Amino acid sequence: MNLINEEITHKVFGEGNIVEHEESIITVDFNKNIKKFVYPDAFEKFITLKNENTAKTFKKLFLQRQLKEEILEKKREEEKEIQMLEQARIDKMKNHRIHESSQIVFWLDDVEQENVFTDWQVFTGEVQSGKNKGEPNRATRVSLNSAGLLTARGPEQPETERQILGLYMVNESYIDNVVKDGMVPSDPEFRIELTNEEAEQMLFWNYYINKNYPHRTTWNSGKFRYFDNIWTAQILKDIILIKTDEEQIKYAENFLAHFCQVNALDIDNIPEVHGALKQ
């Protein structure tokens, strides 16, 4: 905008003419009294343009700049809040001792397979004997660092063909509250569902191993098992490799980064897969 020779009024120096306009500085002649001002800030605070059309243009400029500042400030506040929440989560994690096998893997029945990716929660099953028989199982090892691994196999399939259908981070409400219904809810920020084609590539027993019986691939009863933290990191790493959609890849990468952070794992040194099928 060419402002040379524009007439202005300054709150202190009175009337003058703009005689020079550089990128961020204007020079004003107040009857041989030369003054320099920051452009365009001076028009918002000290200087009034006599030309109404030019003044209206500047008014729009300042309104746009104010709106942009408000948007940036809101974004800064949101980012600050996210950082505070994340720090609170990390601080909370420090109060929980990280068990090396604090992940939970579920055996989904047919009904759960139909509903799990809508409800994003899984039932832990019922106690089968003792004084608490019939009550929901309590997954006592599940904590703020835990993920829920979703698996299933067909009734005619051998156990070795059990597939990983997806996984999620466990919602902290499961840990914070006394859970009576046996449901393990998910954190809405960290959920992954695999397609049928992807699940066929993600066999559960590639990762899981009974350390006392490394060649054994049996799961005869029980709704869930505990799962090593490092195995879940390996699964997330492999999910990244089989995904083809860039957005889903980025999402899985963020999931892995978060998982490694809350489980105190080195994301750059995840060991090779060594499950029962790899023996």
Q: Notable features of this structure?
A:
279 residues, alpha+beta, 2 domains, 6-stranded mixed beta sheet, 5-stranded antiparallel beta sheet, 7 helices, 35% helix
Q: Tell me the fraction of residues in β-strands, as a range.
A: 15-25%
CA radius of gyration is: 31 Å
What share of the residues lie within helices? 25-40%
**pLDDT averaged over residues:** 89
**H/E series:** EEEEHEHEHEEEHEHEHH
Q: Which ranges are low-confidence, i.e. pLDDT below 50, for 5 or more consecutive residues?
A: none
Give the beta-strand count.
11
User: What's the main sheet like?
Assistant: 6 strands, mixed
Number of domains: 2
Specify the number of helices: 7
Main-sheet strand order equals 7-10-9-8-6-11
Model description:
- This protein has helices at 41-45, 52-94, 110-119, 173-176, 196-201, 229-242, 246-262; strands at residues 7-10, 14-21, 25-30, 33-38, 47-49, 103-107, 121-123, 147-152, 163-170, 183-193, 224-227.
- 35% of the residues lie in helices and 23% in strands.
- The chain folds into 2 domains: 7-64, no CATH class; 98-278.
- The protein starts with 6 loop residues before the first strand and ends in a 17-residue tail after the last helix.
- It is elongated.
- With 279 residues, it is α+β, with helices and mostly antiparallel strands.
Question: What is the fold's blueprint, element by element?
Answer:
Elements: E1 7-10, E2 14-21, E3 25-30, E4 33-38, H1 41-45, E5 47-49, H2 52-94, E6 103-107, H3 110-119, E7 121-123, E8 147-152, E9 163-170, H4 173-176, E10 183-193, H5 196-201, E11 224-227, H6 229-242, H7 246-262
Parallel strand pairs: 6-8
Antiparallel strand pairs: 1-2, 1-5, 2-3, 3-4, 6-11, 7-10, 8-9, 9-10
